[in-house]
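Sequence only, no structure available. Ideas?
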Amino acid sequence: MVVCLILKLPLQTERFSIISELKPLTTENKQYNEVVSEKLKEMEPLQNRLGKFRDENNAMRAQGAGLCSSIEELDQTIKRLNDRISHESISLDEEKRLIRQIAQLEKSRPKVISTSVKRAQIQDTVVERDTIQDQVKTIGVGIDEVKKERQAVRSKIKALEDELKSVDAEIASLQEDLTAATTKKDKAYESLSQLRHERDVYNSSFIENRKLLFKAKDLASRSEVSELQELHKREVDKIMEEWCNSKTFREDYEKRILSSLNSRLMSRDGRMRNPDEKPIFIETHAPAAPAEQESLQLKMPAKQAKEAPAPQAEAAPKDEPRPKATVKSAKASAALDADDDSEAESPKEKPKPKEVNVAKLKEIKRQEEIEKNRLALERKKKLAEKQAAKAAVRAQKDAERKLKKEEKKAKKKAETADTEEPTESDKSDGATECQADDESALASAPVKKEQKKSVQYRNVVAKSKAPLPKVILKRKKAQSYWSWAGPAAAVAAVLVALLAVLGYYQYYRPASAGN
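Reply:
I predicted one. Tokens follow.
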């Protein structure tokens, strides 16, 4: 919509400039039209006068058809016919015919006289007719010049009008796009407002619980225990009443905790799922596409989702010693499930694609859960095998230690009694230290497993069956009695002095102050 407005602005400015250029040209064209009309009005009476002259001349010619043009011509023709009758030798019939012709000519004498008079009159008006024709010619020349100038102006006007039409067509197309964009924006805003309303309705319980939590924290920070207990009791009674009376509340609560149960590999009743048990299926509704382009864009991820589980299943055996990746994928799937639950359902949703998408998602999730369970079982088996191997190694080490101790005891029997006691004490100390080391190793092993949750490959060195070297224990030096008796006596004397001072300040001095 913004693009349409941006494109429309320069077109509107261009349209205004064209209109500003057209206005003076149209006024000029009107002026030329007025000049031409005035000249035509001026020419009209002259043309009427010339028409009258032309009509009179035509009428005179029509009347004088077959007659002599003048009296002299009539007399000459009559004389020629009489001479022919008198001087030539002709037949009787020819003579009669000539006589009749002479008689007709004599009869036409008055007509010839009238036509000659009219011709003389017309001849007198020739000068006037010529002047009128000259005036008409000059006016026609002026009209032609004005028409040429008007034609140039009209050509400019036509070019500008064509340009204006093209600009108007572009503006109309942009206006159509703008109206379509505005309608689309209005529809999108309506859907957005509807989705916001649905989101607010969906999150209303969360907002109420958040306010309640803030209120409880405030009461706890102010140490108002009684009010906090009353609030707790009131809210518990309210929730239990809703749970008992409202079926929608129970269904909504169960729906909200499904994603959490799924992420923790638990069933609907809160117990851990068995390896062969199917995961909880959460219904999700994909929003409908508003246009064909968006539907095409939404089809691509669906195809990728079809092809995604197969490579994961193939790559799972290779990634067995990496449980962190499976944990991350489980968390990601849980987050996706939560997001799918939180998404609002679209009002315009096609039924057929919805069924197909739900079936595909169900199959994909089922395969993912089966793969996760299989990997978990394999990890448990490997951990159990490693623990058994470590226990066997420890048992072997304990047996070797016992053998060493028996050998040492047999060797030390031949030695003196004063040396046997410290050696036995040393042996006992060594045994206790070994036991403590074993216990610390056993305690640290599960802690590391819990923290890392990953299998580390170690290079196991093959043990040789050669006899171990003999251990030569160092003999402890005998300490004298006075090395510790002197310091002990000094410490005892200091303690006695301190007790005396404390007794003085606690019993004797208060008594003397009281007296």
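The two ends are 102 Å apart (CA to CA).
Hope that gets you unstuck.
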